[in-house]
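Slide 14.
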Amino acid sequence: MLQPKRTKFRKAQKGRIKGVAKGGFTLNFGSYGLKAQEPARITARQIEAARRAMTRQMKRAGRVWIRIFPDVPVSKKPTEVRMGKGKGTPEFWAAKVKPGRIMFEIDGVSDTVAREALRLGAAKLPVRTRVVARLGEN
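Slide 15: predicted structure.
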């Protein structure tokens, strides 16, 4: 699973995801991509599940690029613990995704296989998505 080797701070504040993606909104590597339509925090497990679903559908042909990285530590307090006593320990890593961001790219497979693979990958993610294709493709 993806996670940073080291971070400046161990815990992060929650914050809000507002606005649209100001980078990473065009296809750079593959012919097909999966674009986020709404803001969300996507966990490292969700990214890995989507990647596995896509590569399985593609029968390990072609190539998949992951364009997001989970670099935000998400902390959580244990269940049934009273208020106070500080912030919980970091439990998992997440990527903050804004609308318009390309999350995955695919190349080296046919149009139908690529679209089906991205559809299966999108089913593993907590955001509405759209499949985008490079100009000149279908």
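Speaker note: The CA atoms of residues 18 and 129 lie 17 Å apart.
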